[in-house]
Specification:
By secondary structure, the chain is α+β, with helices and mostly antiparallel strands. It has three helices and two strands. The longest helix is centred in the middle third of the chain and has 17 residues. It is globular.
Length: about 110
């Protein structure tokens, strides 16, 4: 069984299904698009750390705006994983705009740029 997809990326809703209607209406928005959001205030440090670890080594510039973090890992195919029971949004890879999308990965403890 394969748990990594090459045709879809997934966004797992860590806060539950409460934001599904907003996602249906407005799409997946980074928290930086919602400056007064209580959720943004709660997660600001988490996303700063995530950016620093994943994106800054590739982009070579400091964190300015948050992004939408997607993964090719299908946690639903891994029943024991902590994200296996989370609601997710599946995004077709072909729907991503290469001008505004950064895809990065880690291999052998190195992050290619």
């Amino acid at each position: 069984m394969s748990v990594v997809r090459s045709d879809y990326l997934y966004h797992y809703l860590l806060a539950g299904e409460g934001h599904l209607e907003s996602i249906r209406q407005h799409g997946l928005l980074p928290l930086s698009d919602l400056p007064r959001s209580e959720r943004r205030q709660q997660l600001a440090a988490f996303y700063q750390n995530l950016y620093t670890a994943l994106a800054e080594p590739v982009l070579k510039r400091p964190y300015v705006n948050s992004g939408v973090f997607l993964t090719p890992i299908d946690f639903w195919a891994m029943p024991g994983a902590s994200l296996a029971s989370r609601t997710r949004v599946a995004v077709p890879l072909r729907a991503l705009d290469p001008k505004t999308t950064l895809l990065t990965y880690e291999l052998d403890e190195q992050r290619p740029t």
